[in-house]
Design goal:
Shape: globular
Largest sheet: 8 strands, mixed
CATH architecture of the largest domain: 2-Layer Sandwich
Structural class: alpha/beta
Number of strands: 14
Helix content: 25-40%
Number of domains: 2
Radius of gyration: 22 Å
CATH superfamily of the largest domain: Dihydrodipicolinate Reductase, domain 2
Number of helices: 12
CATH class of the largest domain: Alpha Beta
CATH topology of the largest domain: Dihydrodipicolinate Reductase, domain 2
Length: 375
């Protein structure tokens, strides 16, 4: 039987989620909710579901399994906390758009509430629910990458000064950390998915002259150096339309190990794998040779539409709940989303300290499900 879903927040992302449910066999959207009555009524009519204007009314009148929170707010995350907490208090599984919150304290409370109420809390960290990411993880699990050495990630928005227009939306204007809070959850979640927990962060953050000249305070370009718990090192570059990205475009991830390297391009489009070279192609400083590689092996999905990641991630959430996986095994969980926020807060702290090395706040421990662990 399909899980019954109530969707809260009916802006652009909310409508993307709504469309995903129309094609989803594991979930049935039965109600929509928005504080703007016209939005709720229009969406309810379009999809043939019930309309509500408060989460409390929806929870009182609908027998829901899941509440999907796609509200926005300041820095794209300040309206996530209240509906998510209300739904979890009512014993419902919750899927929240990223970031989990624009306040790391609230995010910690959300993860704590999910554990206390023993309900699922997931986040729409959709960038690694793709065929290229699945293939890349297969390379890792099969030993084709080996011991991790480095991770390079580039993610943001290509543009530049000729097309710049100040964002005067009240939810963004005058918030210097808006880009970092709203966006870094995606690249950090991808880096952690492949390389594990981050233990050290160092960041340099800036904004170009064309933003400064019009008093746009958003810190829009960020260069981040990280160290992972497994001693792999990493680098993340993210910028919000300050320049045009070159090779790899707006989204590229390169992970290298002692046995091989993969690179994902355009998130869902392509992954390339290069095995470590044999003796004939290995680099040699003595011979002034940089070396080459066998291969490469390329998997190209032909998909360039990023929105195709949304139904894949939503399906994974519904699949995990349908299968009754332990809370700790939920893919893209609230704890995973909290990790990305802890790293984001470490970036801001490093910036405020002039590029100092910062250790992110510790994540809550994994407690485990006794009935599962004793199998």
């Amino acid at each position: 039987m399909a899980l019954k879903v109530g969707l809260v927040g009916l802006g652009g992302i909310g409508m993307t989620h709504a469309e995903a449910y129309t094609k989803e066999e594991l979930g049935d959207m039965v109600a929509v909710c928005d504080v703007v009555k016209e939005k709720a009524d229009k969406t309810a009519e379009k999809y043939g579901v019930n309309a509500y204007y408060s989460v409390a009314d929806m929870l009182r009148n609908e027998d829901l399994d899941i509440v999907d929170v796609t509200t926005g707010g300041f820095e794209n995350g300040s309206w996530h906390y209240e509906p998510a907490m209300e739904a979890m208090e009512a014993g419902k599984a919750v899927l929240v758009e990223k970031p989990l919150s624009n306040d790391v304290g609230e995010a910690r409370e959300m993860v704590k509430k999910a554990r206390e109420k023993k309900v699922y809390l997931g986040c729409n960290l959709n960038h690694y629910f793709t065929p290229p990411a699945e293939k890349a993880m297969e390379y890792m699990k099969n030993g084709n990458i080996g011991e991790l050495v480095y991770c390079l990630h580039k993610m943001g928005f290509s543009a530049g000064e000729p097309t710049y227009n100040p964002n005067n939306n009240f939810r963004w204007k005058d918030f210097p950390y808006a880009h970092l809070k709203a966006f870094l959850s995606h690249p950090f979640s991808v880096m952690r998915y492949f390389c594990g927990d981050v233990t050290h962060v160092q960041a340099f953050v800036n904004r170009p002259g064309f933003r400064r000249r019009v008093n746009d305070v958003m810190l829009s370009t960020v260069s981040i150096h990280v160290r992972f718990a497994n001693d792999c090192v990493g680098y993340l570059l993210s910028q919000r339309g300050d320049a045009h990205y070159g090779l790899g475009g707006w989204w590229s991830l390169e992970v290298a190990g002692t046995q091989g390297t993969f690179c994902i391009e355009n998130c869902i489009e392509k992954v390339t794998f290069w095995p470590a070279p044999g003796s004939g192609k290995a680099g040699s400083p003595e011979k002034m040779s940089g070396g080459g590689s066998e291969g490469p092996e390329v998997m190209n999905t032909g998909i360039t539409d990023f929105s195709a990641t949304f139904p894949r991630r939503i399906h994974a959430f519904l699949e995990d709940i349908t299968n009754g996986v332990p809370q700790d095994d939920l893919r893209a969980s609230g704890r995973d989303a909290l990790a990305a926020l802890e790293y984001t807060w470490a970036v801001m702290e490093s910036y405020e300290l002039g590029g100092a090395l910062v250790r992110p706040h510790a994540l809550p421990p994994l407690h485990g499900d006794p009935s599962y662990l004793q199998r």
